[in-house]
Design a protein that fits this description.
Layout (H helix, E strand, L loop, with lengths): L2 H32 L12 H7 L2 H10 L21 E6 L9 H14 L5 E5 L11 H18 L4 E7 L1 H9 L20 E7 L10 H4 L7 E4 L24 H13 L1
Parallel strand pairs: 1-2, 1-3, 3-4, 4-5
Helix pairs in contact: 2-3, 4-8, 5-6
Protein name: Cutinase family protein
Pfam families: Cutinase
Family: Belongs to the cutinase family.
């Protein structure tokens, strides 16, 4: 490949990284203004506290001994064990946000539970650094995948809705097997992909590569929805920074929940 073309690609890659790194501080600063409640117990029903208590196995032990992280009512479905959710949202927060579901994931969990009234709806906040250098996306994908594997084994009827915001969308991309979406991470095994009913992402950096989940991951194309606001520099190459922070209040959270509810039947 000519040196000039290699240099141009490297420069483009550096430019994308600078955009993503530059946005992280504002996500934190503006998040408390956009949705102040998102930073108070953002895990959705105690997930953050569980994550901070110790190892992954300990979190699972806490989860099932306490009946799971539930946000909805009703009874567990068919073959599920006691304490299992009918549906679980597994969501990765954006760059720089404190551990938890974050400014987008928290209202999404609430909207999903409201749309599935009569079912047990749980939520899990992916445990990862959400570092400004974007290199934590791969480890985040591994945590997302391993959590799904563990819950799927214990709860044979639980269905999953997965997603993320900003770098959390990259976490999701890697977890569904999209190559080159970030650092290396573990993808959801093929045998479990049918258990993922819907994929909902916001401000997905994959858009900077002029790609969508539908294009890059055929297995999930029919059950994925992506939201990229006009002018969002993270997913659309725009220059309106506030567009990347508008998802919690512009109706797209409800639209994402409605889409997932539709896929869950």
């Amino acid at each position: 490949m000519p040196k000039r073309r290699v240099g141009a690609r490297r420069a483009a890659g550096r430019s994308r990284r600078l955009v993503l790194i530059g946005i992280s501080a504002a996500v934190v600063a503006a998040g408390a203004v956009v949705t102040p409640q998102a930073f108070a117990g953002t895990s959705g029903n105690g997930t953050t506290a569980a994550a901070e208590r110790g190892s992954f196995l300990q979190r699972l032990r806490d989860r099932f001994s306490s009946g799971g992280a539930q946000t909805g009512g009703g009874n567990a479905g068919g073959g599920n064990a006691a304490g299992c959710s009918d549906v679980e949202l597994v969501f990765a927060r954006g760059t720089g946000e404190p551990q938890g579901l974050g400014i987008v994931g928290r209202p999404l969990a609430q909207a999903l539970a409201a749309g599935l009234d009569g079912q047990k709806v749980g939520s899990f906040a992916v445990v990862y650094d959400a570092a400004s250098n974007q290199r934590s996306a791969g480890p985040g994908a591994t945590n997302m995948t391993e959590h799904i594997e563990s819950v799927a084994q214990s709860c044979p009827e639980t269905q999953f809705v997965i997603g993320g915001y900003s770098q959390g969308a990259s976490v999701t991309d890697i977890a569904i097997g999209i190559r080159g979406a970030g650092t290396a991470g573990k993808a959801i095994p093929a045998a479990l992909r049918e258990r993922v009913a819907a994929v909902v992402v916001y401000g997905n950096p994959l858009g900077l590569r002029r790609q969508t989940i539908a294009q890059a991951s055929p297995d999930f194309a029919g059950k994925a929805i992506e939201f990229c606001n006009n002018g969002d520099p993270v997913c659309g190459g725009g220059n309106t920074f506030s567009a990347h922070l508008a998802y919690p209040r512009n109706g797209t959270v409800q639209r994402g929940a409605d889409f997932a509810v539709g896929k869950l039947g």
